[in-house]
Design goal:
- The protein is an alpha/beta fold.
- It has 17 helices and 16 strands.
- It folds into three domains: 66 residues, Elongation Factor Tu (Ef-tu), domain 3 (Beta Barrel), CATH 2.40.30.20; 274 residues, Rossmann fold; 123 residues, ATP synthase alpha/beta chain, C-terminal domain (Lysin, Up-down Bundle).
- Helix content is 40%, strand content 16%.
Length: 512
């Protein structure tokens, strides 16, 4: 008898043990759900009641997704990968994590996707650090005013619409107006300035991104940059997370006390990806069919750009978001949102682009609300005069077109304005140092270009910049240390310019 009971209890104990440890129990513990439906980058999932908002879910074939909509009986998930491998009935499990991205020095020089996977055949990323892509912006108390310039190397921007480190400056314009070119030039100009750049491509053609990477590599700035790509072919989910991932990568460097420049190219595509996802998830559409939180989408991203106080490391994150306007409409929904979130904008006009006034910056519609305080003092003497001459000229030129008879001073203003416009032209990939810019702008302001035919002005400006190598060193040092030039310095500058322009007529070279 005893033996039978013993056998019975042993069997019962074994049964309980299997119940406790068998698959179905552990599965329930790990919360396995099933896909109900999957289409266009979005999946509906059932059976994961404990899921938290924005939690990362893992599907079969290690496809990841973000829990966006938490409805009582199902979850709307944004997929971060190829949905072709998923179908109704596929398994899903919770991860208990949010989306994160590798960060650290090891990322420099690399091209990665929005999940941090390398796209450049240079092996895996040698960093163990990962940061969540969505992080809270630094509190006001840790922020310092914008005081240091971020030179773009582009005359018209550095002189008239200056950008400071920690600023958010929008670049906007119709398609093919040179938006990317301005941002990439700004990156190229950081090659000798210890500023790390992050270029985030969202929803662009692969060939356009490849061209950007080539330009960075050719100018040898890729080693100090990180390129994060969510191309147009990738899922809308990846396009949606890309700028946040780029911001986290940049924030890591800012936390080490570094100055970082981030370019989001472009946020129009980002907004489109988010609108697509929201409509597929049946969130209520608002103006222009965008969901109600579209403003928050971009404000929480750009809020992460800042300049930290010295006791918090003194690092900075400067953001250059790019957006594309339709038919020059600056008052459409997304442009007005971004104009109000940023500290200023650089507007590129298709009309100027067609006339060949490159970069096609429309000075009248562009503004920098904080950069003026960060601008090198050396610009003060040239930029005010330049802006005035240019604004007057634009008005006068329209009149002059009607064949109106003009007095001498008007004619003079028009002639000067034409030269200013010529001087502000600049080719791609030809960044100029602050000193080179100031000398060229002084030349036009002082009328030293007045006798040169308009067609030769651009060439003469370039020639002047070349002649400056190892010249006027004391003035150069003053400019870079943020001092204003004295009257004697200015005289030395104009002497030097005269000597370069008329090498024969001046007997000696002004070499201060
Ligand atoms: P998209 O809307 O397609 O993104 P975009 O506004 O970013 O275009 P870019 O691709 O930067 O424009 O430039 C458009 C074209 O203009 C390119 O072929 C570029 O080489 C040329 N371009 C831009 N700026 C200059 C410049 N300063 N000098 C000469 N060419 C330029
Ligand atoms: Mg572009």
């Amino acid at each position: 008898m005893n033996g039978i009971f013993q056998q019975f209890f042993q069997q019962a104990a074994e049964h309980i043990d299997t119940v406790l440890h068998n698959d179905s129990f552990t599965l329930r513990e790990r919360e396995i759900g099933r896909v109900l439906q999957v289409s266009s980058g979005v999946a509906r999932v059932k059976g994961l009641p404990g899921t938290k908002a924005m939690e990362l879910l893992r599907f079969e074939n290690s496809i990841m997704g973000i829990a966006f909509n938490l409805d009582p009986d199902e979850i709307g998930v944004v997929l971060l990968g190829e949905e072709a491998d998923l179908s109704a009935g596929s398994r899903v499990e919770r991860t208990g994590r949010v989306v994160d991205i590798p960060v650290g020095k090891a990322l420099l020089g690399r091209v990665i996707d929005a999940l941090g996977q390398p796209l450049d055949n240079a092996g895996s990323l040698k960093t163990g650090l990962r940061w969540p892509i969505e992080r809270e912006a630094r509190p006001i108390i840790e922020r310092a005013p914008v005081t240091e310039p971020l030179q773009t190397g582009i005359k018209v921007i550095d002189a008239l619409i200056p950008i400071g480190r920690g600023q958010r400056q929008l670049i906007l314009g119709d398609r093919q107006t040179g938006k990317t070119a301005v941002a990439i030039d700004a990156m190229l100009n950081q090659s000798d300035k210890n500023i790390i750049s992050v270029y985030c491509a969202i929803g662009q053609r692969g060939t356009a991104v490849a061209k950007v990477i080539d330009r960075l590599r050719a100018a040898d700035v890729l080693k100090n940059s990180i390129v994060l790509v969510a191309a147009g072919e990738s899922s809308p989910g990846l396009q949606y997370i890309a700028p946040y991932a780029a911001a986290s990568i940049a924030e890591w460097f800012m936390d080490q006390g570094e100055d970082v420049l981030v370019i989001y190219d472009d946020l129009t595509r980002h907004a489109h990806a988010y609108r697509e996802l929201s409509l597929l998830l049946r969130r209520p559409p608002g103006r222009e069919a965008y969901p109600g939180d579209i403003f928050y989408l971009h404000s929480r991203l750009l809020e992460r750009a800042t300049h930290l106080k010295p006791e918090h490391g003194g690092g900075s994150l400067t953001a250059l978001p790019i957006i594309e306007t339709q038919a020059q409409n600056l008052s459409a929904y997304i442009p007005t949102n971004l104009i109000s979130i940023t500290d200023g904008q650089v507007y590129l006009s298709p009309a100027l682009f067609q006339k060949g006034n490159l970069p096609a910056v429309d000075v009248g519609k562009s503004v920098s609300r904080v950069g003026g305080k960060a601008q090198l003092s050396g610009y003060l003497d040239v930029s005010g005069q330049l802006r005035l001459a240019y604004a007057q000229f634009e008005e006068l030129e329209t009149f002059a077109r009607f064949g109106t008879r003009l007095d001498d001073s008007t004619r003079h203003n028009i002639a000067r304005g034409r030269r200013v416009r010529e001087v502000l032209k600049q080719d791609e990939s030809q960044p100029l140092s602050a000193f080179e810019q100031i000398v060229i702008l002084t030349a036009v302001n002082e009328g030293l270009f007045d006798d040169i035919p308009v067609a030769n002005i651009k060439k003469t400006g370039d020639q002047l910049a070349k002649a400056l190598i190892n010249q006027l060193e004391s003035q150069q040092n003053k400019i870079y240390s943020g001092e204003r030039l004295s009257a004697e310095d200015k005289a030395a500058l104009t002497d030097f310019i005269r000597a370069v322009l008329n090498p024969d007529s001046t007997p000696h070279h002004a070499n201060a």
